[in-house]
Amino acid sequence: MSIGIRLKADRIQGLSPFVGLSLCQFLGSDLKIKWPNDLMLADQKVGGVLIESKSQAQMAEIAIGIGINLLDLQSQRYLGLKKQVDPEKIAEDFFNKVTKFEAQGFAPFKDAFENQMWRVGRDVELEINGEKKRIQIVGVSEAGSLITREGETYELSDQGEILLSGYSS
Question: Do residues 81 and 41 touch, judged by C-beta distance below 8 A?
């Protein structure tokens, strides 16, 4: 499904993890969020979000694409939720929350995101611009950026992908 919204252009930072959290909360507490917005069930991806935006003056027009596996797919990496999901109820829940996001940003959602964050406190492989490195997920900032640790060094990332392969239990 897709949802279209308009937000002030200076208020979209943290939107991606906010959308992931919103979906995770709506769909069930057994899900985790792989930063910034993939939905994980038992270490396997069951859904995700794509966001595109165009800014015009002070406003941004945003298209939010949401994909959720309802049934298991042939690949073992893609489990399904095995339940019915009403897209209208997802959209209604999202619109009820997005007003607070627009007014206050990601900060009020930080703790809830970290409570449902996949692999937090664990080592994973992060790929940024084709370079892979082993890091520990620490959490997220109040702006929704990923906080990682490599040795004694902490970093903030707004880009990159946490790889499904290459993580430790």
Answer: yes
From first to last of its 169 residues, the chain has per-residue pLDDT tens of 999 999 999 999 999 999 999 999 999 879 999 999 999 998 888 999 999 999 988 999 999 999 999 888 776 666 888 888 999 999 999 999 999 999 999 999 999 999 999 999 999 999 999 999 999 999 999 999 999 999 999 999 999 999 987 555 5
User: Are 11 and 62 in a shared domain?
Assistant: yes
Spell out the alpha helix ranges (H) of the chain: 15-27, 87-104, 110-115
pTM for the model stands at 0.92
- Domain with 153, as residue range(s), is 123-162
d(C-alpha 18, C-alpha 43), whole Å: 20
What's the structural domain count of the chain?
2
d(CA 75, CA 91) in angstroms, rounded, equals 28
CA distance 144 to 70: 27
Distance CA 19, CA 140 (A): 14
